[in-house]
Amino acid sequence: MRIKQFGEEPAGATPLTEEDYVGLKPKWIANRDDLNLAEAQNISEAFDKYFKSPRRTEEILDDLFVRKLHTEMYSNVWAWAGTYRTVETSIGVAPQRISEDVKVLMENAKYWFDTSNPTEIDEAVCKVHHKLVQIHPFRNGNGRMTRMFADLLLAANGRRVFSWGGGILDVVSPTREAYIQALRAADLGDLSLLHEFVRAT
Predict the structure, then answer these.
(1) What SS3 class is residue 24?
(2) Tens of pLDDT along 56-81?
């Protein structure tokens, strides 16, 4: 089975299923390193596209933009890029709730950005990021998508993008563990660890 060639997922990541691998587009991918390279190239292209000119907050806070961003980040790699998941995952809301939950989050978030206070903007971005991670809209790539989504919101509000702990979050590392712990604390209603982590260097 091809899925066995890809090794272990990092802690806190959504394991890929055999069905997910059916949606893999590049035929040259044979292992986890190949997959990481293909995704990184696709994400880099999306980054260049979206950060060339800042978007408005109102444009970003839209469920269509959420799906569009995920599509741009992963469509060269996965056939299901930009499509809300229809299967249960280890984290996230039930599939039938995803569309409505994302729409409600985007509408609520518009009120959180009715401020020019830099600290309040950072807090609003952290809150949106955490809520999107909780919903877990897609089969995979949610962490990277929600982090780019957060940075786009910061750029739209004239803020410097987050450092995200100053380390790499897509591999097993102390930085990733700190990030996971911050998200778990946010799950319990305490966003302070996440606020601290995203600006740490």
Answers:
(1) strand
(2) 999 999 999 999 999 999 999 999 99
Listed in sequence order, the residues at least 6 apart from 47 whose beta carbon sits closer than 8 Å to its beta carbon are 148
At how many degrees (to 10) do helices 118-135 and 174-187 cross? Answer: 90
Separation between Cα atoms, residue 177 and residue 123, nearest integer Å: 21
> Where are the domains positioned within the chain?
2-198
Distance from C-alpha of 183 to C-alpha of 181, rounded to nearest angstrom: 5
Half-sphere exposure of residue 104: CA atoms within 13 angstroms, side-chain side = 7
Q: Give the global pTM.
A: 0.90
The answer to whether the CB of 64 falls within 8 A of the CB of 107 is: no
2-198 topology per CATH: Fic-like fold (1.10.3290)
